[in-house]
Structure formats: C-alpha cells, structure tokens
Amino acid sequence: MAREVQRGANAVEDVEATLWQVPETLSDVILQKMRAPAKANDVAEISPEQLLEADGFIFGFPSRFGVMAAQFKAFFDATHHICETQALAGKPAGIFWSTGFHGGGQELTALTAVTQLAHHGMLFVPLGYTFGSGMFEMNEVKGGSSYGAGTFAADGSREPTELELKQAFHQGKYVAEIARKLKSPL
Question: Residue-wise over 52-84: b if at least 16 C-beta within 10 A, else e?
C-alpha cells in the first residue's frame, strides 16, 4: 500500500515523495509471536526532525484495536518539541491503514489518528469520494473509506487487492496535488 501511495504522489509534476518507516519499539520475540512481516530493508527510518523538510504527509500504519500501532504512536509522541513550535501547522496530511478484518477499526483508526494531526495544526486531507465508483464497490472485499485508503490484512497473510492498490495510488496523487497547490505562490 505504501509503495502505491508513494507512486501516486510521485506521479504529480514537481513532487518527490519519500518513503520512510518509524522506529520499531517491539522486541524481535514479540514481533515473531505476532507474525509481523519483516521490515523493508530499502526504507530508512525517519526521525521526528525530518518531518520539518516535507510539504505534506500521507501516514500509513496497521491498526491495533481500532487505533494506530504503538510504534507509530510512539513516533508521534516523540514530536512534542515540534508540536510546541507548530512547525507543521498548515501542512496537508492524509492517512491510510490496514486492519485485520471488517470489525478491526477501518474508520476508527483514521478518526483516532486525526487527533495527532490536529495537535500539530496539520490539515487533514480525507479521500472523500474522489476515488469515484471504486468507493462504492460491493462485489469484492475492499478496505478504505472516505477517510483514506485501506486494506484488510486478515492474519497478515492477505495482500491488498488491485482495487485497494488503485485507491492507494489515487490517494497519493490526490494529497500530493493538494500539497503542491498549497505550496504554490498565489
């Protein structure tokens, strides 16, 4: 999903999207018990200070009990000094996620994540229904909502469908277009 969001953002002229991952907070033993997938070795870890370099954001994370995973929450907690200065205020931010199943918090995860953006003064950019007919697809299992792109991961073995990946691409492009417009001089 993250690579499709990045691909969509990079499809916008004059936009360069960078893929980052937040630092891991759980031990290898716990990660093995959770059957967590291996971290991508071609994606660097981000520090809170690197957020200052961006013109916009699309944050993606798995859901745990209807909220963002603890690793991502710990990352946001580490941004307190940036929050104090409101250095991210006015920057657009979208959200995408994965949950285990239908009752796993598809919309609740997004709603609880918005609080992180609000404290920083970031502008939440929901997907709305800009994905068109793909938003209303009822013939296949599809994650996501008007809050952002999403997928159902089941026990971690389910891969995003083509439709979910198209929605992720669309969200990347959509948020990048808004970030570019906000950065452009009047």
Answer: eebebbbbbbbbbeebbbebbbebbeebeebbe
Q: Note down the domain range covering 18.
A: 1-183
pLDDT tens for 15-51 read: 999 999 999 999 999 988 887 888 889 999 999 999 9
- How many domains does the chain divide into? 1
Question: Can you give the CATH number for the domain in which 117 is found?
Answer: 3.40.50.360
State pTM to two decimals: 0.93
The 3-state DSSP class for residue 135 equals helix
SS3 61: strand
Question: Which CA distances in Å does 76 have to 23, 95, 117, 122?
Answer: 11, 14, 9, 13
Map residue 92 onto helix, strand or coil: strand
Q: Per-residue pLDDT tens for 135-171?
A: 998 899 899 999 999 999 888 888 999 999 999 999 9
Tally Cβ neighbours within 10 Å of residue 183. 13
